[in-house]
Design a protein that fits this description.
This protein is of the alpha+beta class. Helices cover about 20% and strands about 30% of the residues.
């Protein structure tokens, strides 16, 4: 296709070949536009240069000579560093690098002993500033070039591939050999590749270039010079541009020096030093300017650039500008200069002090210190060899001014280049490898730069375009946030290559940092004024630097790698606490590419699309992503020191924290810019945003004092308390802290937040609106209802923000029935809960966007449903524009800031004790914004509350409710019903005559069983008694007069819309006293003979009750031939089953079945055979009458027991009655002549009291009355009513006569014929006889006794008894006859010190009579004297026991002479003789 031109791209993100049509009379600009159109939209606006590497097509004239079918190359300029084929604008350092690349390749085989691999760059200047001239020389001791190689060098675009010298990818390490993961595999020196860079670089710096080279195997030096002007002229003349004549000379020959070179003495030195010489030879060479023969094996290459461009000349002439050139070159060749480990240590002898001691005139390279806070890295032992086996090159830069050296520097000594700063500041590294299909292996390393000492340790470096804003050491100085953001934006647009990796993620991260920087407002806020700008610059630098064949590719930008982004993207909200965003800004790294990847000719960019290649790369370790995550977490947790914790919390909090998480609590945290204290109001970037008061701060380990840690947590009390509750606590990582709020801000934001909570429930239809009363008849239905929940702004809500979570709302409909005794709804405690300022101060805040999207909960003031219209149904739905959301938020803020406005809510507290829950329905699925509920049929009349409750509710407030009162009215009455306590009592117990039944409630019922309220006693209401029918029989309840001998009565009262029957009682008719007919008597009693009727009654009442009574009466009830059999009696009182009937006109009667029993006791009857009955046969059947005239007095001897008798209790109407649980009663017995009077006897179930154990007391001449009376003990007012109806009980008076007893009552003692009288001092019931003057040791003999009865008459008649004596063992049976009972002798004690006591006791056998006893007191005196005794009893001095019987000579004394019996007892005083006034004379 001859009318088309083939265009191949160079420097484009992908290598692309396109066909472009060639037109006549075309210009250069239209042709370039067609090239861009063929390349696609990505090429629009991109600048490039067209060349065939012989001609550069720079204007229309040159393009006019282009022929169809030609092949052109489009060299793209991607930055200001881009090169054009011959007239580019390459930066100075990068231009030098093109020549150094050639030297590195040439010197890679330098292995001669004693010879170093040396590359020297010389800057030579002379003359004044207005006429300054200069040279640039790059020389090395490499292998040199042959004349053929030198000719090939001169040909433009003749690459290594064209020469057959294309570098190859390094072979991977074999099994068992360590694999290099850094730059080691790629430090081959194969950098000169395209055959373009060195010539472009040379013409970038000057107008002429000269190459001088010599190989070791050649004795000649070859020279080739190129002049830009001559090349251009040849190009214009259409001649071969790069054909030049080579010059061959001997080493040291200066005849070939150009006119420019001859002006510089150092040029002569270079020629003279083309071969090594001894010092003496060097002097001769210098003097004679003649070269000596070159020895075998010497080689070198020297490139001299002359006619320097003004800007280049000014740069090399300024000694102060060389530092940046050194840094750039040291960065480019960092791993060639320091080996594959890089520059990890500091050389102590290269400090500033050492530099200051250098010789005058020698300016050494300035050394920067390590970043503040970073630990010193261990020094690496510098190796002289690279992993590839090549020697580490020595690259020197020197400056000669006016023929003398002014300064020199070794690039290996530069330690403030970006790579050195990285390696010396990093504190952790992670090596890795990636395999790129069809391209080879990429080695890489990641470094971590922690936050320490309140600053970032990541070196900013010397990255344009922010270089001018960086102070020495890489720290920002005067860059504001806005400037930094603007610079970063420019960097993102100009420095990012098309093939960069993940550009959007990096750009997003940069702008996020810019956003944070704007929020911090560090400048003027008391913090670090450079913090924001530094953060922006830190984010703008690429994550990875790219090295190709060990050489930096400065224009390549790799912002991330797939496994890094996967870790970043897979973080959850919780994992971001351990891997926050800032840790990804603290990692940097380097990637090392081999020869399998293609770079542009100027080595500023990669020709390959790295974005696609690295995205498809396979990590060398399949667990690379996991290892990277673990490495990054460990770096952040162990190395970052961003938070300072101070002031330990109290012991109570520490103990609680220790038991839960094992951490330590503090009261203060300092993050370098601000100080946080317990009690501060904080805003935290959670979802949703959380506001709370800090309680304390926690680190995740147990420590004893404060310190600096990578991260921590804050325990806050979420606010407002209405939403979270007063006891709620949340533990939030400190990295989520957004701001510290003032109290004023907190108040405003809390009020705004509470406006978003559920505030009101709106009901439809309007008849059911909250606060109204809805009436309907029983059996009707409450209509279908629709409820809508709104916030304080009137927006409908279906979800609410409660407790920090967005929770769907649920509406619960409850129907309560108010209990009958609770009245109206006002008693259900309707409360309006208003927010007080103390609660309002705890509200939280969320953004306006959250209001529209999440519809969070909040407090809102209650509104009147009757006066406020229903809000728009569409308001607040999803899809509303942000303008409306902003307007709503503004309205909320304005309402919250209104003075005196306090949000309130309405809540009705339902007390279950005052109402019954009838129905509960929950609705979780609203229809749009409305919750629908079906109709409810109500059959029971009364007051209802229809309640709608929003769930869940705010923890700090009662549930939000809406209540409507529903009044259900009963229909017409059609039946009666008795209810109440009285009905239960009638079913559970018998009703005594006269006893009040508990109150009854008479209800009028409609057709549905509802109570019809009554305001007065209905006319025609009647009570009546009817006999109860037999079981399973239907009673005839029609109204008719009753012929029963009992009546019913009650008090009728209207209370609470019902008729109360109070004090209902059944009474016998007044004329009856012999028993009511309703109580049946035993049928067998009527058929008995009159004389046995009483006995039958006795058997009926007592058989089976007491065993001895049953046996006694059974003998008397033996059947006679004409008497029928007697049925077995039962111990129960008769009762009657009756029906209380309630009558109302036109209604069926209501009945109440009651069982009636006899009433309260009123009088007493004695049972036959009592002690007062005559014992004659004709009186056997008499029944005692209640009166003393009807009976004969019961005669008893003193001490005799009254025979047992029984008493029957009768009620007022003569019915036998007995005690009940409500009315127990007793029999009280009192009599003056009975012992232990009064006493009480109990009645059994049938009202019979057994009286026994009454003992006669002292005899009396006249009969005394025995009183039998009733003691009633009612336990409640109902039983008291029965007592009142029975009247005052009657007592029974019975005469009792007590006669003296003939049983022994006392003992009379006889001594001889003398009767011993009783002592007057002893009581009558304990007589004592005293016997005086009884000699000691004697015997009382001739003793006897006889007994006297109660009348003091001797007892005789043969009473058998036994006598017991105190001085004789055992007892003796005697019979009391007329005469004396003789007693044995009583021995008398030998001692006179005590009175001897004895006793006589007589016990009557087979009698209950008590024993009689007599006490004998014997007073003992001394016996007859048998000896005399003398004793000194008185003198001038009282003798002591020791000298008793001894007197002193001449001392008067008294001598007592006394008679003694045989027991030593002295006689009486009359037997004592006293001899007084005696003296003993010696």
């Amino acid at each position: 296709m001859t009318d088309h031109v083939t265009v191949i791209t160079i420097g484009w993100h992908v290598k692309q070949t396109v066909q472009v049509p060639l037109r006549t009379k075309q210009g250069l600009l239209p042709f370039k536009d067609r090239v861009r159109a063929a390349l696609g939209t990505a090429a629009q606006g991109q600048e490039f240069v067209l060349t065939d590497f012989n001609i550069d097509f720079l204007d229309d004239a040159s393009l006019g000579r282009l022929q169809g079918g030609a092949t052109l190359h489009a060299l793209f300029v991607t930055s200001k560093h881009g090169l054009q084929p011959t007239k580019g604008h390459h930066p100075f350092a990068y231009a030098l690098a093109e020549l150094i690349d050639n030297s590195l390749r040439a010197t890679r085989d330098v292995t001669r002993p004693g010879q170093s691999r040396t590359i020297t760059i010389s800057f030579v200047t002379r003359g004044p500033a207005t006429a300054r001239k200069g040279l640039i020389c790059v020389r090395d001791n490499g292998s040199g070039m042959s004349k053929e190689a030198l000719h090939d060098w001169a040909v433009m675009n003749l690459s290594m591939e064209d020469r057959g010298q294309q570098p190859t990818e390094a072979e991977p390490a074999g099994r068992g050999q360590p694999a290099l993961t850094g730059a080691g595999n790629f430090l081959t020196g194969d950098l000169s590749y395209f055959g373009v860079g060195s010539k472009n670089a040379a013409f970038f710096m000057g107008q002429s270039v000269k190459v001088i080279t010599k190989r070791a195997d050649s004795p000649y030096v070859h020279e080739l010079g190129l002049v830009a002007a001559e090349l251009e002229q040849r190009y214009k003349d259409s001649k071969s541009v790069y054909e030049e004549d080579l010059v061959h000379r001997m080493p040291g020959d200066v005849s070939t020096l150009s006119s420019i070179e001859t002006q510089f003495p150092v040029a002569h030195t270079w020629v003279a030093n083309e071969q090594p010489h001894s010092p003496s030879q060097r002097h001769r060479v210098a003097d004679s300017q003649q070269a000596l023969p070159s020895p075998e094996g010497h080689s070198f290459t020297r490139v001299i650039i002359a006619d320097l461009k003004p800007e280049v000349l000014s740069q090399i002439a300024d000694a102060t500008r060389y530092e940046q050139v050194c840094r750039d070159l040291a960065h480019l060749y960092h791993y060639y200069l320091h080996g594959h480990h890089g520059n990890l240590g500091f050389d102590s002898d290269k400090t500033e002090e050492a530099a200051a001691k250098r010789a005058p005139g020698k300016k050494g390279k300035r050394k920067s210190r390590s970043p503040a806070g970073s630990p010193q890295q261990p020094k690496q032992k510098r190796s002289s060899m690279l992993p590839s086996g090549q020697a580490i090159p020595t690259i020197l830069i020197e400056h000669h001014a006016e023929g003398s050296p002014s300064w020199e520097a070794s690039l290996a000594e530069v330690d403030d280049d970006t790579e050195s700063l990285y390696l010396q500041a990093q504190q952790a590294q992670l090596p890795f490898t990636l395999t790129v299909p069809e391209h080879g292996t990429v080695s890489g390393v990641l470094w971590y730069f922690p936050y320490q000492n309140d600053q970032e340790t990541l070196p900013v470096g010397h990255h344009p375009p922010l270089l001018q804003a960086a102070a020495p050491g890489g720290h920002l100085t005067q860059l504001t946030q806005a400037e930094a953001a603007q610079q970063v934006g420019a960097t993102q647009q100009t420095q990012r290559p098309v093939g960069s990796q993940f550009p959007s993620a990096a750009l997003t991260a940069v702008w996020e940092v810019c956003k944070v920087a704007r929020q911090l407002q560090c400048v003027g806020a008391g913090g670090d004024s450079n913090a924001a700008a530094r953060a922006v610059l830190q984010a703008s630098c690429p994550m990875f630097e790219a090295f190709w064949q060990g050489r930096l590719i400065p224009g390549a930008r790799i912002d991330s790698l797939p496994f890094v982004e996967m870790v970043r993207a897979k973080r959850t909200a919780a994992s971001k606490d351990t891997l926050p965003d800032e840790v990804f800004m603290r990692i940097r790294g380097a990637l090392f590419f081999g020869a399998g990847f293609k770079v542009t000719r100027n080595k500023l960019l990669f020709r390959d699309n790295l974005q696609e290649l690295l995205a498809a790369a396979v990590p060398g370790d399949r667990l690379q992503e996991k290892k990277f995550r673990e490495w990054l977490v460990k770096c952040h947790s162990q190395l970052d020191k961003s938070l300072r914790f101070e002031n330990l919390a109290d012991a109570t909090i520490q103990e609680a924290i220790s038991s839960k998480t094992g951490g330590t609590a503090f009261n203060t945290v300092i993050d370098g810019q601000r100080t946080l204290q317990s009690g501060d109001a904080l805003r935290l970037t959670t979802k949703p945003v959380l506001v709370g008061r800090a309680l304390y701060f926690v680190v995740g380990q147990v420590v004893k004092e404060g310190g600096v840690y990578a991260n921590g947590q804050v325990v806050v009390q979420p606010l407002p308390t209405a939403m979270y509750g007063g006891d709620a606590q949340r533990t939030i990582p400190l990295r989520r802290l957004e701001a510290v709020l003032t109290e004023e801000q907190l108040e405003v934001q809390c009020a705004k937040e509470m406006q978003k909570a559920p505030s009101e429930v709106l009901l439809e239809p309007k008849e059911l609106s909250a606060g109204t009363t809805f009436s309907l008849s029983a059996g009707a239905a409450i209509p279908e209802t629709s409820a809508r929940v709104t916030n304080g702004l009137g927006q409908p809500l279906v979800k609410a923000l409660l407790g920090g979570q967005k929770i769907p709302l649920m509406l619960v409909q409850r129907l309560w029935r108010v209990k009958d005794n609770q009245g109206c709804l006002a008693e259900w405690q309707l409360h309006k809960h208003s927010q007080c300022p103390c609660i309002l101060s705890g509200f939280s805040l969320c953004d306006a966007e959250e209001l529209g999207e999440a519809q969070p909960s909040g407090e809102a003031s209650a509104v009147d449903h009757e006066s406020e219209q229903r809000p728009d149904a569409k308001k607040g739905r999803k899809g509303k524009k942000k303008a409306k959301v902003a307007a709503v938020a503004a309205a909320a803020m304005q309402q919250a800031e209104t003075a005196g406005s306090t949000p309130s809510r309405r809540s009705v507290i339902m007390d279950p004790s005052k109402g019954d829950l009838i129905q509960e329905v929950s609705n979780r699925i609203p229809v749009k914004e409305d919750f629908q509920f079906p109709s409810i049929a109500v059959r029971q009349q009364g007051t209802y509350v229809l309640q709608y409750e929003v769930q869940p509710h705010l923890p700090g407030l009662p549930a939000l409710t809406a209540c409507t009162t529903v009044a259900v009215i009963a229909g017409l009455p059609i039946s009666l019903e008795l209810q109440g306590e009285g009905r239960a009592a009638a079913a559970s117990k018998d009703l005594m005559l006269g006893e009040h039944l508990p109150p009854l409630t008479l209800l009028c019922k409609d057709a549905l069983g509802n109570n019809v309220p009554m305001s007065q006693v209905p006319p025609g209401l009647t009570l009546a008694l009817k006999p109860a029918p037999p079981k399973d029989a239907v009673a005839e309840l029609a109204w008719e007069a009753s012929d029963l001998d009992v009546d019913v009565s009650a008090d009728l009262v209207v209370e609470g819309g019902t008729v109360k029957l109070k004090h209902l009682q059944v009474l016998g008719k007044p004329a009856i006293s012999g028993g009511l007919a309703i109580f049946p008597h035993p049928a067998t009693a009527a058929s008995l003979s009159p004389q046995n009727q009483a006995r039958f009654l006795f058997a009926f009442l007592f058989l089976g009750y007491e065993g001895d009574v049953h046996s006694l009466q059974a003998s008397k009830l033996a059947r006679t031939p004409d008497s029928p059999a007697v049925a077995s009696p039962k111990q129960e009182l008769p009762s009657a089953d009756l029906i209380v009937c309630v009558y109302m006109p036109d209604m069926p009667a209501e009945q109440l079945r009651v069982r009636v029993r006899p009433g309260a006791p009123h009088r007493l009857n004695l049972h036959p055979d009592h002690p007062w009955c005559p014992q004659s046969e004709q009186d056997e059947d008499r029944v005692a009458k209640p009166g003393p005239s009807a009976v004969t007095a019961a005669k008893l001897s003193s001490g005799e027991a009254l025979p047992t008798f029984w008493v029957q209790a009768l009620d007022k109407w003569g019915n036998q009655t007995g005690p009940t649980p409500d009315l127990p009663f007793n029999l009280v017995i009192a009599c003056d002549v009975l012992q232990s009077s009064p006493i009480t006897a109990a009645f059994n179930e049938v009202g019979v009291a057994k009286v026994r154990g009454l003992t006669a007391g002292t005899a009396s001449l006249d009969a005394c009355p025995l009183s039998l009376s009733l003691q009633l003990l009612p336990s409640n007012p109902l039983a008291e009513a029965a007592c009142t109806a029975a009247g005052q009980p009657d007592s029974l008076q019975l005469p009792v006569l007590v006669q003296p007893s003939t049983a022994p009552a006392s003992i009379q003692l006889l001594v001889g014929d003398d009767t011993m009288p009783y002592s007057a001092d002893c009581p009558s019931n304990a007589p004592v006889v005293i016997i005086d003057n009884v000699p000691a040791g004697s015997v009382l003999s001739d003793l006897g006794f006889f007994c006297l009865d109660e009348a003091q008459q001797p007892v005789h008649g043969g009473i058998l008894g036994k006598v017991q004596l105190s001085w004789s063992r055992g007892s003796k049976n005697v019979v009391l006859e007329e005469g004396i009972v003789c007693l044995p002798d009583m021995p008398v004690s030998e001692s006179t010190a005590e009175v001897m006591m004895g006793w006589i006791r007589f016990v009557v056998k087979d009698s209950t009579a008590p024993a009689v006893e007599l006490t004998i007191q014997v007073n003992i005196v001394a016996a007859d004297p048998v000896a005399w005794g003398m004793a000194i009893v008185a003198g001038n001095s009282q003798p002591t026991p020791r000298d008793q019987g001894e007197v002193q000579c001449g001392q008067p004394f008294t001598l007592e002479i006394c008679a003694h019996d045989k027991f030593g007892h002295r006689q009486a005083a009359q037997a004592i003789l006293l001899l007084q006034r005696l003296w003993f004379l010696h």
